Amino acid sequence: MSLILLGSTGSIGSNTLKVAKEFGIPIEVLGAGRNIALLNQQIKAFSPKAVIIQNANDKDQLKSNGARIYIGENGLKEAIFNSDSKILLNAISGGNGLKASIFAQQANKTIALANKESLVSAGWLFDTTKIIPVDSEHFSLWYLLRNQNIEHISSLIITASGGAFRDMPLEDIANKTKKDALKHPNWNMGDKITVDSASMINKLFELLEAHWLFNSKNPHLKLDAIIERSSNVHALIGHTDGSFSAHLSYPDMRLAIAYALDLIKAEQISLIPPLDLKNLFKIKFEEIDYKRYPVWSLKSNLLRNPKLGVILNAANEILTDAFLNNRIPFGHIATEIIESIQAYETKCLAIQNFEDVLNLDLEIKAYIKQKLA
Q1: 318 exposure class (CB count in 10 Å sphere: 0-12, 13-18, 19+)
Q2: In a domain, 337, yes or no
Q3: I need a surface site. Which of 2, 10, 196, 370 has the fewest CB within 10 A?
Q4: 122 contacts: CB under 8 Å, gap ≥ 6
Q5: Residue 279: is its pLDDT beyond 80?
């Protein structure tokens, strides 16, 4: 078995290479954005047969070590179709990851998916039987549901840290800046995911992902999220008998990655430290309050009409970028997303295929950019 790894220079990509080295899995294709210095180190360490880069201007800096070089979106598609690997781990962040997932499905690859936008924007168009979730929450749900009769499960619940503003006075949140939003209470992550955590957009994304991954087997499952501040409880399942099961672990993406790459070895090799059970008294569950997280008011409509994820994702991508560039205050993200869903809901529910998704995505982004101009 060999692996195609997209987004290799990000946090998940770097952790994937650690797991691949531990498991002895060769890397056939490495794909990265603009961090060519780190990509060169990865090429030297793993000797891939092919390398994908985003921009042709970076080719002169690339030390390919004899690997075939592919460039841009066309190169991405060509590299995926030309590869022998049966599994592709998609750790590309943002909307660009959707096209990578589309190409992987067209090439009949199994997708180890860490890109949220793929299922959020187009979940109904993917064969989810060939998707392995790498997000910690969805991995935990999968872990809990193993060997379970899905008909005896009543609810799936994922957890949230609460983000940077979980304890801030409500009246202060709307005008907060990038500096404030990036102060995550638990750990350092990329800028966009940290802002998505502060707004609770990331949990809306993850509920939509859970819908496509799990609800097809039992459409009556209740999906929800709850705040758990320690980030040691990743997900819970409710049983029809009234009991709950929870998945707890030290927060480390290598666990989810390991199970995606090799289930047998993942069960046999310890990659993360065990939890100190004496600290479990700190666990407390809290409701997600739409007054603190205004986008949470969209949850029920999104789960009834999950195609609306196209609007949610496109609007959030532009608005979060504007916020990170200090063009809008934090409160504008939620306000503009809610208005965008109202403006595009009817049109969105009529989309049918990947081309419709991509075209509407571009239209919504143009709409938001014009409003912000």
Answers
A1: buried
A2: no
A3: 370
A4: 98, 102, 310, 354, 357
A5: no
Encoding tokens for residue 307?
Answer: 């195609």
48: domain CATH number?
Answer: 3.40.50.720
Our count of domains for the chain comes to 1
Residue 17 lies in a domain: yes
- The answer to whether residue 64 is domain-embedded is yes
Nearest C-alpha neighbor of 204 from the set 306, 340, 343: 306
Question: What does pTM read for this prediction?
Answer: 0.93
Please classify residue 198 by burial: count the beta carbons closer than 10 Å to its beta carbon, then call 0-12 exposed, 13-18 middle and 19+ buried: buried
Distance CA 357, CA 7 (A): 22
Structural domain containing residue 104:
3-133
Query: CA dist 321 to 92, 178, 238, 332, Å?
Result: 16, 10, 37, 12
The amino acid that residue 204 corresponds to is L
On whether residue 72 sits in a domain, the answer given is yes
204-207, Cβ contacts within 8 angstroms, sequence gap of 24 or more: 204/295, 204/296, 204/298, 204/299, 204/302, 204/312, 205/116, 205/117, 205/120, 205/309, 205/312, 205/313, 206/116, 206/135, 206/137, 206/138, 206/158, 207/158, 207/299, 207/302, 207/303
In three-state secondary structure terms, 244 is strand
Helix/strand/coil percentages in the chain, nearest 5: 55, 15, 30
126-163 pLDDT, tens digit each: 999 999 999 999 999 999 999 898 889 999 999 999 99
* DSSP secondary structure letters along 148-164: --GGGEEEEEEEE---T
- Distance of alpha carbon 206 from the chain centroid: 7
Which of the four pLDDT bands, split at 50, 70 and 90, describes residue 277? confident
Please say whether the beta carbons of 272 and 294 come within 8 A.
Answer: no
Strand order in 153-160's β-sheet? 244-248, 233-239, 153-160, 222-228, 285-286
Do residues 103 and 77 lie in contact, with contact meaning Cβ atoms separated by under 8 Å? Answer: yes
Instruction: Please give the Cα distance from 294 to 309 (Å, whole number).
Output: 16
What's the pLDDT at 217? 66
